[in-house]
């Protein structure tokens, strides 16, 4: 089936139907996996005979695995096809979820959750965004489709603590992983009928060295953030080493291009101002979402000793906010510039983080609700335009690369958020409540810087003139 015919077949009329459903549900469950363990820290550490920091490391490694493999696996979509990578990723994820449910200790949990679920997510998420971009051609229908997918991701991250907490308390934390596996089975059944708009090309060369350098550099860099809590010298050394490897990756792909060989990423991806700024905003958005979720959930459990359900219920406020604003963003983009939506989202999120900062010493969990609601509204309204700006800035032949890069940058933001918060908190069974305020401050700074960066995005007319996005709408 040609791209053009597929686009007509999967147009706006089917946005709420079966074509978009498995893609949105896949984004939901992957985002759910990134946050649901935040409210199970105490239960899992006791059952697995480990520590709360041990479980936190597993969470961070899951996010880090996704970030490290998203670019290499995004490139595989060109070789194997988008549908094949999507289904393969779902299968790997399901195996990881089952292993996690059966884990007798931290080691198997890390293998199942951090490695296999992380790798499966890195395989299946790039096809989600590529297929949305290829199926829906005009700005309005694409923005609406991305709005649904982004809403699913945001709601998954926000409901992770709520649903995970309920399952953990009512049954067991292990049942939360069984739940993920069952959802994956449903997605597979729904996705079997999907058509790949562009045929796979197994003959295309694959840049193995580039894949190793890109993934390795990201892993070492984030591990540096985690190591700072124990040793500043070691942490800074790892950060420097990671930065050097990432710089080496860029030099490598540039040298391959000069030799007329296909690189893991095209350096042209980094020459588009709209995309570069959009990627930074994506990174900051997921840093804020996962960092705040990690911080509040850890604080409520470890410091205030709330159980999984009590900790999870409070996140329903963020869920409502994200759901309402994400779905509205697809309609707002018709009349409001995407730059305006992103700037406004960061400012609103900043207000929410300040509200959370002010209630840090207030008794009870419900005082956290207003701040989480405001943060959900702010994040939801800007997730869609950020993704749409980045994906729409490139032609079809670069969709595999930009989707992998985009999702890698977003998941790197998630890793940064959890790693920064974990390093500042230094949580133990007898953690220091004062660290809550210290961990919230950098999140407020990120929200402010995000608004400034988004302010440099071009407006609607400049985008249409430059051809970065379709001029329609």
Task: Explain what you see.
The chain has 473 residues and is mainly alpha-helical. It has 18 helices and no strands. The protein has helices at 3-9, 21-35, 41-47, 52-80, 82-102, 106-135, 139-170, 173-191, 208-227, 232-258, 273-303, 308-313, 316-332, 338-358, 369-391, 399-425, 435-454, 460-466. Helix 14 runs antiparallel to helix 17. The chain is globular, with a radius of gyration of 21 Å. The two termini are 27 Å apart. The model is unreliable at 1-16, 427-433 and 464-473 (pLDDT under 50).
Rounded to an integer, what's the Rg over CA atoms? 21 Å
Estimate percent helicity: over 70%
Proportion in β-strands: under 5%
What's the shape? globular
Q: Round the mean pLDDT to the nearest integer and report it.
A: 83
Task: Report on the biggest sheet.
Answer: none
Strand and helix order: HHHHHHHHHHHHHHHHHH
Query: Count of helices?
Result: 18
Number of strands: 0
Low-pLDDT regions? 1-16, 427-433, 464-473
Distance between the termini: 27 Å
Class by alpha and beta content = mainly alpha
Please summarize what this structure is.
The protein has 473 residues and is an all-alpha fold. The chain has helices at 3-9, 21-35, 41-47, 52-80, 82-102, 106-135, 139-170, 173-191, 208-227, 232-258, 273-303, 308-313, 316-332, 338-358, 369-391, 399-425, 435-454, 460-466.
